[in-house]
Amino acid sequence: MSDIVWRPWGDEAFTEARIENRPVLLSITADWCHFCRTMDEQVYGNEAIAQYISDHFVPVRVDADKRPDINTRYAQGGLPSTLVLTPDGDGIWGGTFIALDGMAQVMPQILNAFHNDKANLDAQLTQQREQLKQQATPPPLDTSLPVTPEIGRVAQVGIKHNFDFAFGGFGKEQKFGHPDALELCLLYYARSLQAGAPDADLKIVLDKTLTALVDGGLHDKDAGGFFRYTQTPDWREPHHEKLLRDNALLARMFTHAYQVLGDERWKSAAAKTLQYLDATLYDVGASGWGGSQYADPEYYAQPV
To answer: CA-to-CA distance for 92 and 23, rounded, in angstroms?
Structure first.
């Protein structure tokens, strides 16, 4: 069976690609990412695909948590991010999770363009470089413009517009915790209380979303902490990875929710989340917290 020998990101891999006139296959993953492992098993673990990649590409693997600079530069909107680059690091093609059939179809097409359609490829790369140059040099910030309360009001309008009145939270498909948006709601609701005119709309957003967070599938009621997201708008079918950043922000948000709203449920949610972080993610030997806990579908599929 052929195994892909992943090279680390660095000059050596791109020099190899340049000398052998091969494109680079860049795979950006994370230890906690369920779909990354699925793609490793179902796609890169396929003998024919692995052999084809090994014969025609220089495969490079990057851990998104260890190299956030590379992830920021090349991310395709989610993990895994799957890209084909020139030996100079320019992007030829990109996607996220690519199924086996899709990989078998797209890889030969990209390889053919790389070797046999240089004119169109060079034109594409020239246009891409110009776009990146423009993005890297935005117009200068006008520091004379005032910072006004209108900014906060516009943000509130956006939050209320995206609020899911049926199930709480924001958006109509997957559900994330969105602690930053909830922190903004808490700030402006607290101000409305101080002014003697409680904002009824923000109260609905907070009550319904906080309740859904605690009672819904995003919350691991057995082991503690919160999963990254659910696949349904009604907070079911969570993907079971847990991230330190998500849980730390949610713990802080629930603490503020208790301070503003005075509900013991939010105090308990904050305390239990911190307990999870200390009990599960804290590494005594390293004197710090791990960045994530991997999603283990088999464990969570076990009957209670």
So the answer is: 9
Half-sphere exposure of 183 (CA within 13 A, CB side): 11
- Distance, in Å, from the CA atom of 26 to the CA atom of 97, rounded to the nearest integer, reads 13
DSSP 139-170: PPP-TTS---THHHHHHHHHHHHHB-TTTSSB
Could you tell me if 22 and 57 are in contact, meaning their C-beta atoms sit under 8 angstroms apart? yes
Work out whether strand 24-29 and strand 242-243 pair parallel, antiparallel, or are unpaired.
unpaired
Question: What is the pLDDT at residue 1?
Answer: 41
| Phi, psi values for residue 217, rounded to 5° | -75, -10
Give the up-direction half-sphere exposure of residue 31: CA atoms within 13 A in the CB hemisphere: 10
Distance of CA 75 to the CA centre of its chain: 9
The DSSP secondary-structure symbol of 8 reads: P
Could you read off the pLDDT of 215-242 as tens digits, one per residue?
Answer: 999 999 988 999 999 999 999 999 888 9
